[in-house]
């Protein structure tokens, strides 16, 4: 708690930034030096953005705020980091998936490419305090709305999540 929160999110942020950087590298046309700078700028932007929105005791809290999203609009954090290395939003749209959602939560970083792709976990940490089952449940809640009935609803939700 307190000001220790910043240090605790380092792994999650570096995992997320490395992932976006890998996507850029795979697309080609961006030099290694630019990629390194992009990754550092993105980590810095994320640290700044998440500073007061990181709740290890309630990992799902603020999940929407921390979610990095490209969906016909460029995520501002990615856009900002790309601007630092002279990449325009147009260029980014050519290099990155047009539909990308990246969830950066305490103890877990996961992503989905495409609006109904499956969710893949990039990083998962054993959770502190031995409260894993309860936290696991709340952790899926932010993603529940993105999933279109792909996973079986957890017990506490029953079939309520399916209605809309």
TrEMBL record:
<dbReference type="InterPro" id="IPR036054">
    <property type="entry name" value="BTG-like_sf"/>
</dbReference>
<dbReference type="GO" id="GO:0008285">
    <property type="term" value="P:negative regulation of cell population proliferation"/>
</dbReference>
<protein>
    <submittedName>
        <fullName>BTG1 protein</fullName>
    </submittedName>
</protein>
<dbReference type="Pfam" id="PF07742">
    <property type="entry name" value="BTG"/>
</dbReference>
<feature type="domain" description="Anti-proliferative protein">
    <location>
        <begin position="96"/>
        <end position="115"/>
    </location>
</feature>
<feature type="compositionally biased region" description="Polar residues">
    <location>
        <begin position="148"/>
        <end position="164"/>
    </location>
</feature>
<dbReference type="GO" id="GO:0005737">
    <property type="term" value="C:cytoplasm"/>
</dbReference>
<dbReference type="InterPro" id="IPR033332">
    <property type="entry name" value="BTG"/>
</dbReference>
<comment type="similarity">
    <text>Belongs to the BTG family.</text>
</comment>
<dbReference type="InterPro" id="IPR002087">
    <property type="entry name" value="Anti_prolifrtn"/>
</dbReference>
<dbReference type="GO" id="GO:0005634">
    <property type="term" value="C:nucleus"/>
</dbReference>
<feature type="region of interest" description="Disordered">
    <location>
        <begin position="127"/>
        <end position="164"/>
    </location>
</feature>
<feature type="compositionally biased region" description="Basic and acidic residues">
    <location>
        <begin position="134"/>
        <end position="147"/>
    </location>
</feature>
